[in-house]
Amino acid sequence: MVNAIDYDAATTRVLAAAREGRPLAVTALAVHGVMTGVQDRAHGSRLNSFDLVTPDGQPVRWALNSLHKAALADRVYGPELTMRVLIKAADEGLPVYLYGSTEPTLERLIAALHVKLPGLKIAGSEPSKFRRAADGEPEQIAGRIRASGARIVLVGLGCPRQEQFVYAMRPLIDAPMLAVGAAFDYHAGQLKNPPPWMQKRGLEWLWRLGLEPKRLWRRYLILNPAYLARLAGQKTRVWKAAPPPPAAEPLTNFPV
User: Fold this and answer.
1) What are phi and psi of 27, to 5 degrees?
2) Is the N-terminal amide bond of 243 cis, ω within 30° of 0?
3) Under DSSP, is residue 154 helix (H, G, I), strand (E, B) or coil?
């Protein structure tokens, strides 16, 4: 499900697809994202069809290193990967499209990006509708993105909604689509990153739990122990993972 890859290689793959005008489904998964795919096999199947899944969280990187000898020196964190892609896009004049979140967040994000990356071309932006797609709506959204001239699409709908969106829209858009999680909020200045020492030790979940306990307590206090139990089972060979095959069927009922 998760690729053993670093920032440079992941950025290179995204920019190559952007230059060539071809689809590329990308997401960055921490423990919550991985476990969502484990608990919902249909969703896990969709994740396994993605072109690139980066190890967003330190525990995911540790698992790759422990189970598969990946020798990864760092995780590939969604907000950081987003900024690296945007820097390259600005350098090369590749327009980007921002899809998701709310209009106020997008306004703050665009203003912040114009300050940080004055050369970045933002082809368009569109907030989430916070509902499921209506008949014909995916084609309309894809039409707006194509008409904008965007070469890279960033999707900020939250996990697992953004992965469903990217999976469903990939056949309609000839550009890399990145499910970027909370990157919009971070780069808009609405969320603060934890201190580096917490990030290195895999304690970002504790930081996020402290900021949003009512919304996130189930995610971390239930899924984290379940993840560790499965990791221990694989490490000791008591339990063997059986990932579902990559999905290929269209998805029509998905969040927009």
Assistant:
1) -145, 160
2) no
3) strand
The half-sphere exposure of 224 on its side-chain side, counting CA atoms within 13 A, is 15
Cβ atoms of 243 and 48 within 8 Å: the answer is: yes
Angle ∠(71,154,23) on CA atoms, nearest 5: 80
**What backbone phi and psi angles, to 5 degrees, belong to 177?**
-120, 125
- The CA distance from 225 to 44, in Å, is 19
Q: What is the DSSP string of 97-128?
A: EEEES-HHHHHHHHHHHHHH-TT--EEEEE--
CB atoms inside a 10 Å sphere around CB 77: 24
pLDDT at 228: 87
DSSP H helices in the chain: 7-20, 31-39, 41-47, 58-68, 78-92, 103-116, 137-148, 161-169, 183-187, 196-200, 204-211, 213-235
CA–CA distance, 228 with 233 (Å, rounded to integer) = 8
For 171-203, write each residue's pLDDT tens digit. 999 999 999 989 999 999 998 888 888 888 888
Q: Give the Cβ contact number of residue 179 at 10 Å.
A: 30
